[in-house]
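Comment thread on ticket #2218

A.B. wrote:
> Attaching the input chain for the structure job we discussed in standup.
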Amino acid sequence: MSAAGDYLTLSRLPVAIVTSVCFVLGGLAAPHHPLAALVVLGLAGILQQAFACHINDIADYEADRRNPGRRPSPLVTGAVTLPRITFWAVTESVILTCAAVAAVRPWPALAGFVIVIMMTAWVNSFQKTSRFVSPLVTDVIFGLAIALPLPLSAWALSGHLAPVPLWLGAAWMFQMVMMNTTTGNLKDLEHDRASGARTTALVLGVRQVAGRFVLTRRYLAFVLAAQGASVACLAAACAIAARSAVQQALAAAALLIALASTAGLARQLRPASQRPRGPAARSRLTGLPATWGHDAGPVLGNLVAFLLAAAASISASGVGWFALVIGGWTALVFAIRALRAVTPGRLA
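C.D. wrote:
> Ran it. Output below, let me know if you need it in another format.
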């Protein structure tokens, strides 16, 4: 594979595009959102996720070498060396910081973006290894690092911090916490236990016995609380901003899908449904491991609900912009998913 292909593979590009949505939606939430600003924000989101992936690969290098699920990684096979991926990560952090310093005003928003870069570096380095910070806290920091760009982008373009982007950012943060503690934690549960890693699932007592996940009440309460908080934040954003008939219809659809995702998550997390379908089983649509539930239905449902709530929460005149951006983003995701070299399922 070429150096460019290795870079794209280790950047998990489809996932990076998902992350960039927060940056773009933050720009759309501002009263004035020039196309050039939206493009720059989208590129910043892609670069931030690539930076996160590269930092994570560096931190987990020794563990990944012992994990059969990581064998396709160019870093594990030796196609990419540690010095090279370190150079990528340093370059990405410099570009992101310089871009923030050059383009972001007011200064509190600039400070926020710099903090996001620092949080991204820290959480992807120590999420599973910190002995001083609880995994429950690191999962929240993980969610914040991904979600904070939404209100910060709106702040940078508008000059003030508005409540709707804050509520949408909070909803996305809780979605990321839910996803990481389920899909993220469960797919590597036994490897993490064997390697001495600390994750929310392990700390809250989840274990795997005879091919079945044994879930504890504490773990279920944490996951469902994150999901419920996400739905509540979406409802708050829609209640504040949805005024026109179109916005109210979008808001109603968003909340119905979010509630359906919550019900589906509760159903899938019952002990009887926790039999994995094999270590290689993955959703054909998302590339996510299918070790819990069916084709990551609640994760996709949450994403759709979030996008609909965002459409309902931006100004009525911005709905056309939103449809254009999300339509282009969706087409790009599926186009990239067709490129086998950058399929996230190969490295997830």
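A.B. wrote:
> Thanks. Noting for the ticket: The chain has two domains: 1-158+319-348, 162-314.
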